[in-house]
Amino acid sequence: MLQLNLGNKALIFDRPAVMGILNVTPDSFSDGGRYNQMDKALQHCEQMLAEGADFIDIGGCSTRPNNAIATEQEELERVIPILKAIKTAFPEALISIDTSRKNVAQACIAEGADLINDISGGLFDKDMLPYIGENHIPYVMMHCIGTPETMHQYTLGGDIHQTVLGFFRQQCEVLEAYGEQQIILDPGIGFGKSLEANYQLLSDLNKYRYNNLPILIGISRKSLINKVLHTTPDTAENGTTVLNTVALLNGADILRVHDVKNAREAIELVGSFCNFAQNLES
User: Fold this and answer.
1) Crossing angle (nearest 10°) for helices 237-249 and 195-203
2) Which of 102, 209, 221, 256 is labelled catalytic?
3) Residue of 78, 101, 209, 222 marked catalytic
4) What are the residues facing 5 on neighbouring strands?
5) Is 126 a residue of the active site?
6) Is 256 an annotated catalytic residue?
7) What's the pTM value of the predicted model, to 2 decimals?
């Protein structure tokens, strides 16, 4: 069960949570350019909240393959204005910031962000983990290898569960040295893994669930769907829902998605299925 302490407020989620993706970039792999204007970004945020998003995950730096990485200043100029606007329009919304840069994380936390979602698990910026650890900021730690320019060239296979578990143990120990932390684990599906490895990571989440921490699964519109179904990111919503259902049945605590409504329905149906199955067994 996911529990977060945000300031003087403790949030307990009695069912899996949904993180709605808000990319304010011109070049993200699925929706680049759709929401990098303020009015469109706010409209999409409002829609995702209405459909049941527990978090809005704002990203201002795309890591799609063969893409030029935005500078820190560009990332700040994209993220800070929309963060401020969302906090004004939707003051109760929980905001996650998708960044691997400590300075961006710090600036966003100062503006009211609640959570940092780091695709590098602390590898890209040596100051990120000390900052997160010293300030006990809720933190999504994603498994990653390589650099922003090279990570998509890797195709890890073999005993992928042990590889990911070892990474989580190593990076969590760094954070835990600063005292009690609020860590969410993300196995990094679609980042530097073979197709087989991506599916293995969906098959048994507890094999890499370090210290019983909650696990976030982000598979929305990714290539592990498109390579099998021969779809594109724009036509991968049904495949996304199918694999989100698999993730939920295997213990996922958070789904990070482009389509909040589909994810919320999957959570409701899987919850009902599990409850009815338990009743039959008893």
Assistant:
1) 40
2) 256
3) 222
4) 10
5) no
6) yes
7) 0.93
